[in-house]
Amino acid sequence: MEARQTKNRARIASCLIFLACILLLSGCLGKQQAQPSPGAIAASVPAGDFGGQWWDFYKRGTLLAERGQHREAMADFREAIAQRDKDQWQAEIDSGRAIDYFPHREIGILHVASKEYNKAILELENSMASASSARASFFLNQARAGKTDRDAHDNTAPEILFAGSTAPEVTSNCSKVVSGVVSDDTFVAALTVAGQELPMAVPEKSKVFKTEVLLTEGKNSITAVATDLAGNIAEKSLEISCDRQGPLIEIEQQKVANDQVSIRGNVSDNHELGSLSINGDLWPITGKAAGYNFEFTLPDGRITIIAADRAGNVTGARVRRDELDFRGNDSLPLPAPQETREQDTDPPVIRIEGLGSEVETSSDTVQLAGQISDASLLVYISVNGEEILNRKGRSIYFSQSRPLGQGRNSFRIIAADAYGNKARHTLTVNRMNEPARQMEARLRLALLPFTGISDAAGSKEGFMKGMRKTFLDQARFNLVEEEQVIAACRELHFNLGAPLTPQEAAKVGQTVGAEAVLTGRVVTYGAAVEIVGQLIDTDSGALMARNDVFGYDPESTGSDGLFAGLADRFSRDFPLAEGALLEVRDREVVVNIGAKDRLRALARLICYRVGPPARHPVTGVLLPAEPEFVGEVQVTEVGKNSSRARVLEQKGGLLRGDKVIAR
Fold first, then answer.
1. What does pTM read for this prediction?
2. Which of 342-351, 448-457, 587-596 has the lowest mean pLDDT?
3. CATH assignment of the domain containing 207
4. Residues 181, 160: Cα–Cα separation, whole Å
5. Residue of 43, 102, 167, 552 with fewest CB within 10 Å of its CB?
6. Does one domain contain both 138 and 177?
7. Domain's final residue, options 382, 416, 432
8. Are residues 475 and 447 in the same domain?
9. pLDDT tens-digit profile of 469-523?
10. Are residues 386 and 254 in the same domain?
């Protein structure tokens, strides 16, 4: 009996074990059926025919990622990578079509979403190494910042080192080239110099920088500000004094006796004198004094006094017996000193060297040099309301370098003596751009409507209006009128905003007389927008440059907006590089600028010739001559330091040494 019960219990246990296995197997099968197969996923995504090619997996992966199916999307991206590993702009697929292909980038973005920062950084760096994109850069910044915040709290600010001396400097230049390096143990995320943001494609541990900063008269503090990914900020400044005023030469007394001229005077400067010469002989100057007295006697005749300060400004005075030699025989005699107690009623005499009341120039500065004299003591001299310091002499020679804006520049000189007599002199300098630097000489660019503009990117009209305004404000390219572009598209039977091949875009450019066209597309990722622009040569239909921006503010036209970012990138790709012709052949030339100057193939260069400079009759300073247009060339081959170009146009023949500037 007991044996039979034991046998029954064994049978029951076996049945229970069997039922448990059945239930377990059923549960496993149920779970497997809950996971859609690749075929089921493909069927659920309206991506057209799925052929199992790398582009099929990539397209399906992007759609799955948008739907939040990250694991399935990542699997598809991996399948695509197994067939085609490298990220690439416009990767060719069947039938001559092409797509932007970035599987490593998209995998990295999915890792950022799941806070797997180490994996994200590897994938995004891989993508940037193959094909740099603004979207990859954006999320690489996020991944690095997230990793820094997670792994360790960074309290150390970046280190900024300027190249050269950091001691206070005095210069007469209108600008200062500031260069150096900024480094950080994590990554430098942003850098500004004098309020100007310097471009950084991705954060770097060590960033070498170089930029030109405009200076104003007086003291200038140029500050560099660096920020790392943890938000730590470092600042460092250079102190530069901009001095464009030459020394003052004051003639206090001038006597002639027995064919000898005795002169007593003073030379002074608002900073520090550098040298003083009289008739070519150096006058001894020691120390760092701002002024010196001089007294000498020389045989009667022309006497020339030249004074220079430490900044390089020069003032000259040519003194002849009883008269100034500023205008040859037309000079007026030096006013006689007041020897009575009667009040002086005559105003001071103002003479300006070499400039009439109306002057035209292409230079960005003008040299105001002259002499002011009076029978009494001069107590006040100003240029445009800025007082010129003086020691109240009777005859004062001055020199100033003044920056010129585009168009008309007026200068009003006022002098007053001790009796309140005033003299005024006004002259106008009209600054005209050199022909090679005028907007009409810049690369003529047709801006075509971009494709893919959705509600996230704003209306098509508003989007293109913002884009056009930004390029116009930047003033790097000479834009074709919008109406001409629209008329050309209609004439060629192209739909506005429809995708165009490079050859079709080039036809639009040729129709409106442009040398290049800018076309592109907009890709939306939820609230984020990616804008991709392509600059195409109209002669060949070849791609000159491609740039992209990514962010969440597509219609901002401020300095931080996407439009401004895109315009800045194309401007940096095509700077106004300048150089000269090294070799001239029949239809080919060699220029002394290349990759180091950011010159690109297909860039166009204007060739011009500059005659010998004229020399200032008093100070001896060389004055630039006006340039002459002699031709145009297009770059065909770019080397590191030099490039080859084909001749498009020439006027009278090109010569070795002719100047060139990018259009």
1. 0.71
2. 448-457
3. 2.60.40.10
4. 6
5. 167
6. no
7. 432
8. yes
9. 999 988 899 999 999 999 999 999 998 878 888 999 999 999 999 999 999 999 8
10. yes
